[in-house]
């Protein structure tokens, strides 16, 4: 189970397409870790999130210690992981664990997904990979930007901007 959960979260984090979580209830332990692996997280007003593993004498094992610290900062990660407390949607928004509170949450997530389909798939994949990379990967950003800038999708995007029309990717 440990390896399977870790692998699932890593797959969600590394797929080239953006992953969106719609949290409409409890996202505790592994559920929170899977949500953290997503690129965007939307929660309903009734959502509850947390990493309560410490209460079972264990720690998050699917990447939660690292992803929570990266998403919310080390202080918030230590607070939630060391205390095992559960937070509501309002606090999750305040600490940056979710991007937005929306009711109905699934409709909001689908709205964003539809918006993302209008973007260059290649640019989305590179942007996701670069944001997920460590801060020491700034050189990689320059290389990837150059490669995208020379590509057909960038040419179409720039032409559409100049022509004041939507790009066709």
Characterization of the model:
The protein is 56% helix and 11% strand. It is mainly alpha-helical and 169 residues long. Helix 2 (30-37) crosses helix 3, helix 3 (64-72) crosses helix 4 and helix 7 (121-132) runs antiparallel to helix 8 (138-149). The chain is globular and about 55 Å long. The model has no long low-confidence stretch (mean pLDDT 93).
Keywords:
about 170 residues, mainly alpha, three-stranded parallel sheet, three-stranded mixed sheet, 9 helices, 6 strands
What is the overall silhouette? globular
Low-confidence stretches: none
Query: CA-to-CA gap between the ends?
Result: 40 Å
Q: In percent terms, what proportion of residues is strand?
A: 5-15%
Q: Structural class given helices, strands, pairing?
A: mainly alpha
How many β-strands, per DSSP? Answer: 6
Strand order within the widest beta sheet: 1-3-6
Order of helices and strands: HEEHEEHHEHEHHHH
Number of helices: 9
Instruction: Please compute the radius of gyration using only Cα atoms.
Output: 18 Å
User: The biggest beta sheet, please?
Assistant: 3 strands, parallel
Helix % is: 55-70%
Oligomer: single chain
Mean pLDDT: 93
Summarize the structure.
The protein is built from 9 helices and 6 strands.
